[in-house]
Structure formats: structure tokens, C-alpha cells
Amino acid sequence: MSRYLVSCLFILAVVCGSAFLFFPDYWTHRYDDVISRQARVYRLDERLVWSLIYEETYFRPWKIGNAEEVGLMQVTPAVARQWAKETGLKEYERQAAENVNEFLSDPERNIQAGCWYLERLREQYRGRSAETAMTLAAYNAGPSRVDEWTRDADAATISEADFISRISIASTKSYVSLILERYRRTPASPQR
Asked: Which of 16, 39, 65, 155 could bridge across to 44 with cysteines, CB 3.0–4.6 Å?
């Protein structure tokens, strides 16, 4: 019996590993329609949203972060509840209050709430030279950190490179740099 179980687990691991190796386009592009739809709703570049999801979870909707962030875009429970309240839909408010993890496990809802939050952050930095880098840094570390990193500079004109060099949290600096690099090399439509 145990040989049979070990054999089955081995075969399953080989099949899953093969799928991961031979079907990465499916894995990384299976949510492209949802990303495109929600990015349009919130006036975001779908390549940026796709690149953010790639970095956050590599398209794993079940992922739970260290700070209890949930799903593809690693939306925090507080952001989910705030988004649900602002939709004006009582059912969303109820679901987010009762079981936020289940509420955010739906990829469409997760991407919708994540895009809403990303756009809210972007509004704070719109028109600045380092708009996208600041938005990503705020998404990862919070807007107060962005304020901290631009305190002794002209936040409106600081260059992207200068802003990134001021990020004092290594993981956030890497996060912002990797997303920007992927975003800029992703074709105009990430769908294959």
C-alpha cells in the first residue's frame, strides 16, 4: 500500500512539474481577461497589473501572505473591507466581514479590489516623475513610507532612479525594481 501511495505521489509530482515547465504561458496568462477588464475599469495599464501579480503571487489565487494578505494581488483584509464598503453593495460588505479570505479567493473579486486600491494609491502620485515607482512602493510598504523616502526632496520632480535609490527597505526596493523591469519589457498585450 505505501509503495502504491509513494508511486502515485511521485507520478503526480512529475505531472505537475511537467505542466509547470511546459505550460507557463497558460499559468501566467490564465487571468489575462480578468486583469484586462479590471485594469480598464480603474484606468490602469494591464501590463502593470499583470507584472504586479507576477511578483506578488506568480498567479496563485490561494496564496496568503505573512501579513494576512490574500490572493493574486495580496489584498489585505482592511483594504478588502474598505473596497466592499465603497462599492455600496451590502452583500459584499457582509461577505468581507464574515470571511474575508473566502471573499478574496475569487480571482475576479481579488483583482477588482487590488486594482481599486492600486488606483487609489496612484491618485496620490499622479503626474510625478516617479509616479509608477511611488505607486508600487506604496502598494508594498504603504504611503507613509513613500512620504518618508521623499521627505527631503521635491517629490513632484524626483526621478524614478533617485526615488528607488532612496527606498530603505531592501525587499521593497527589489519589489519595485523587478515589477518595473517586467512591466517595461511585457508586450503591449500580455495575452499570447
From this structure: 39
